[in-house]
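User: Sequence in, structure out. Go.
Assistant: Echoing your sequence, followed by the structure tokens.
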Amino acid sequence: MDPKPTPQQMADTTADRPGFTRPMNREEINALPIAGWNGPVHVVRTPEELAEAMVRLDSQNLLGFDTETRPAHTKGEHYLPSLLQLAAESEVFLFQLKQLGLAGPLRRILSDPEVSKVGVGLAHDLHELQKMHSFQPAGFVDLGSMARKAGIRNLGLRGLAAVLLGVRITKGAKVSNWARTELSAQQIRYAATDAWVGRFLFLALRQHVSHL
């Protein structure tokens, strides 16, 4: 989706809209048009692809961040993250951790205070990534905390997209097998969209909070 509203326009949200005076409900969100990232997506699984991705990310100081994990269906079953998503301004990178592990270049980005990584549910994602390899997170910004400061009642990624962007983010691929070697087109679009929309929402929320 090429977003029609600018962050400044979204910052002009008035307090009488659903999501501010009360949370937007499921029916209201489901009535919104579906949106998703349609730009370039790079699936990274080899050291050579990782090196190229780092070159392309080197100039970025704001990244949308998310992870995906293979779902557990039985008691006691647990999996570490399979995918790490980073969304730059005009392209999204999906790092397949089963093949790469939490490699040094990824740890350096996650520990760089000069690069803002924005998303929701960060504490859980970072806790799980640290089980893969020790690193010191820095530069992370939780969209839920920003939304609270802005007086928004919907704090999840899907709810924030509905309130601020007027679109619906689908969750159909959430419980799919993220550990598979070849991701499906639906998985790639889903994963890229979550990281992209997080970055775009940060810009909107930053504008809105600065005007409070």
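User: And one key feature?
Assistant: The chain has nine helices and six strands.
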